[in-house]
Amino acid sequence: MATEAQSDGGLVFHPLDQFITKPLFGDGIVHWYTPTNVTLWMAIVVLSIVLVFVVGSRGRAIVPSRMQSVGELMYGFVYKMVEDVTGKDGIKYFPYIMTLFVFVLFANYLALLPMSYSSTSMIAVTAVLGFGVFIAITILGFVLHGASFLGLFWLKDAPLALRPVIAVLEVISYFVRPVSLSIRLAGNITAGHVVIKVFAGFAALTIASPAAVLGIVAIYGLEVLVCGIQAYVFTILTCVYLKDALHPAH
Description:
Elements: E1 4-7, E2 10-13, H1 37-55, H2 66-86, H3 94-110, H4 123-145, H5 163-203, H6 209-246
Antiparallel strand pairs: 1-2
């Protein structure tokens, strides 16, 4: 977490310190194989998902328990989303999309716990998710349709003179997709945590503390909404991109 100190009668705090990657063991240099706080919290996310969907539903009761109800609610929500956006052809890819949704959702909400680490604020994590979606869907499009997948960029309904210009814009837009997916998620989560930390710094001042505490409560409440919305946005955009791969001519 950010370090705070009094300096010349004022408050010095560093809201971005909460995003520093630190090794779990020792103070050595962080390599790709070094267990860090990011590794720890992603593992906690995975364990939480297993707890809800495996342990919570192991009884498969007709009258579900609370944990089983939560799992079934998320399952039905994502299934309906995939079916509505991609059609029946996209249902076979539901497990992949469901995995993305629950990982982002759990990572976002676990990051709201005190002393936790926001793994989805790391551009490295969100970039893997975003580029993973982009690469998988692009490969799927070429596997299913071959060269005709390129018809996604050539709009036959547009005037002939404008088609090349539109094609260039469509190609640029297509390759911006993974960047947009990753930056949108990381940026929104990071911004919320930074604002909360800034208000927490002001809460240490006697004069500003009541207003700052109210600000923390308000921003925290907003972050509860943002965490769910960002998981939804990431998932539904993935469904839209999947639809383009399944039906490039539409």
